Amino acid sequence: MNVDLSALWPGALATLRIAGGAWLLSIVLGLAILWIRELNIRPLLLVIDGFITFIRAIPELVMLYLVYFGITYFGMRLESLTAAVIALGIAECAFTAEYFRAAMKTVQPSQRMAGESLGLSHTQILGRIVIPQALPFAIPPVLNSFIGLIKTATLASAVGAVELLYAAQDLMNRTGQIIPVATALVVIYVVATLPLTALVGRLEVRARERSARA
Amino acid sequence: MLLPDWATLQTWLELMLKGLVVTIQLSAVSIVFTIVIGAIASIGAVSPRLWVRIVTRIYVDLFRSIPILALMIIFYFGFGPYSAELGLNSFTFAAAALSLSSGAYLAEVYRAAIQSVPRSQWRAAESLGLGHGTILRHAIIPQVIPPLVPATLNIVITIVKNSSLASLITVYELTLSATLAVSTSFMPMQVFLLLGVFYAAVILPMIFASGRLERWVNRRYGLVSAKIPATTTAGRSYSLIRTPGGAR
Known about the structure:
The complex is a heterodimer of chains A (214) and B (248).
Chain A lengths: L8 H31 L2 H15 L3 H9 L11 H26 L3 H9 L4 H31 L11 H12 L2 H36 L1
Chain B lengths: L5 H40 L4 H16 L2 H12 L3 H4 L3 H27 L2 H9 L4 H31 L11 H12 L2 H33 L1 H4 L23
Helix pairs in contact in B: 1-2, 1-5, 1-7, 1-8, 2-5, 3-5, 5-7, 6-7, 7-9, 8-9
């Protein structure tokens, strides 16, 4: 019996939307955390660090349940896809913030001081000195987090979002054809993630080489 | 209603403590297999034989690309009908998926560590007439084990977190016990917050331990550890070593 694998496509699109949405959200939140850290206000730093540590300690699935089911407590309801974007975006931002921080650390503090001695403002120092140099180091891990999110988007099936895994599961249930569907599923994930992984690897090597030359 | 009454809370705690035991069992089994698989695959990745390197490369790339949940579902649907004959159940499927997936990820971390040892050491050992296995066992591996402890602890954290996915293939672990508590009480917010507290209670000490171990390793083994993924963020590296998307 032949299986119509085209039933997987809408699911694949939903996966991309979840991963893409959560990725953008995590970058925005990561930048917000970076900005708060730059303010360097001690109580705020403690709150941010506590928030990040706590998020890291909680499974993404639990975060998703909290967002999707927990929000009913406030009399609201979210679509499963939206809930997945929010939950995964929040879970991811703890890591994104660390990637940004690590990238900023690659710029020597003496460069900031040099900027200050030239009379540049804080914004100018960040925008003209620190960020342009830190960016090549931030891009690979942040791309990497998109690859991870393509995989974590599978969790959205737990709250009924029809993403790739859900569509595949549904197809297995309806046709009973486990092996062809499972093979197609694996091939799609490999094709979606491996080339990106290779790209990230090359960008990392380039960033490291550039910093070695500098 | 903000808080559950005492009797409700007690039934929740009872359910979730039972689930916690299964979560710990599932994690423990998966951790052991992950470390074994990671160690074997990383040694395979630096093997002098080409076909061994190819086989490990295929394993590592394939299983890093498949989401853990997809792997669990494939095992569950694929072997489910024969589970009685094979003597398997959803616990074994979950453990297999967690170990195979995290093992592939850990293999990359271990391989990076082995390859961070300068080539000159290999050449020095070769000039003494030592074989590949002997060099690995006596010269290379002893150096990389201490700096790998925090990285391994981080994969342990990821495994405990990912074990919650087993609830979706009916393993009666912590997360499933919480959904059960929700279905009897209809207080999802309160139950899932409590669930978060349960996970945090297990994982937070490990996060702190891994951070401290990492600082210790950096002080003690600065040179070797510089090239090993410094995984301060639980389970994932943000250093500049290729660790695609983390284990998930």
